[in-house]
Amino acid sequence: MIVVTTPTGGIGRQVLDHLLAGDAAVRVIVRDPSRLPAPVRERVEVVPGSHGDPGVVMDAFDGADAVFWVVPPDLTAVSADAAYRGFTRPACDAVQRRGVTHVVGVSALGRGTPQAGRAGLVTASLAMDDLIAGTGVHYRALALPSFMDNLLRQVTPIRDRGVFSGPVSGDLTAPACATRDIAAVAAGLLLERSWTGAGSVAVLGPEDLSSDAQARIMSEVLGRPVRFRRTPAEEFKAAFVARGASDAMAQAMLDMMLAKDDGLDNAEPRTPASSSPTSFRQWCEEVLRPAVLA
């Protein structure tokens, strides 16, 4: 039995699709079961509730062999540590008490870098990995750069003004990956569990690109000019506060981006195994362009 958290989220729903295609026995934890497509509900066990709830994870992990773990975003948390380690502690207790053997978790690049201790959400995510690994479970942290799919949050300015933005240098070259590739790697690890111990698996996409280079590719794919605008740090943080984020979480978001601008995502060596297949151009053609034209 494989337990999937965030089964309606951007990565979790794609992991679930892979697992069901492989005819695995799957149990999901979901706050609102009605958000699951009816054909999916018919094929999985559903545990309603939050996977941050001790009782929910204790029930969901009963008889489970493996867990796909994702911490959901919580902009109102009192700290990044509370959002990641605090949220994950009940699951760690349930992993030990229920005898779960394998966990695959969504995490971040940066372990061992000078930036890792001041990288906001990334720092908290790496601490979460240590917490999970400390249970003794076999654990694989998916070490991830920024997601291509995050640009979907900026579809409106891309469509209406031909601009996307962020608090990094436009000429910073760094990896980026598609959530479809993250899901494929996660599902592979969950289905074939011969791996042991604790470690990480990087998913880097096939190439490193700058935001300016991404803008050129977007322009070509969309057939209209698109440019990148570097957002001042204060403006970036204020935008999150305006959306209801706590000051601590807004600062953690900013600290993560500043660490990326300082090279956080560039320390992981690219290998054939870590070079996931979806290029930025392919992603723009298959995901961004339909979203912009919708």
Detail the topology: elements first, then pairings:
Layout: E1 2-5, H1 12-21, E2 26-30, H2 38-41, E3 45-48, H3 54-60, E4 66-69, H4 80-98, E5 102-106, H5 121-133, E6 138-143, E7 146-147, H6 155-161, E8 163-166, E9 174-177, H7 179-191, E10 198-202, E11 208-209, H8 211-222, E12 227-230, H9 233-242, H10 247-261, H11 280-293
Parallel strand pairs: 1-2, 1-4, 2-3, 4-5, 5-6, 6-10, 7-9, 8-12
Antiparallel strand pairs: 9-11
Helix pairs in contact: 1-7, 3-4, 4-5, 6-11, 8-11, 9-10
The strands making up the biggest β-sheet line up spatially as 3-2-1-4-5-6-10
Structure annotation, total helices: 11
**CATH H-level superfamily title of the domain at 2-147 and 177-205 and 264-277:** NAD(P)-binding Rossmann-like Domain
CATH top level assignment of the domain at 2-147 and 177-205 and 264-277:
Alpha Beta
Series of H and E elements: EHEHEHEHEHEEHEEHEEHEHHH
Shape: globular
CATH topology of the domain at 2-147 and 177-205 and 264-277: Rossmann fold
| Span between termini | 38 Å
- For this structure, the quaternary state is single chain
Secondary structure: number of strands? 12
Helix/strand-derived category reads alpha/beta
Mean pLDDT across every amino acid position: 97
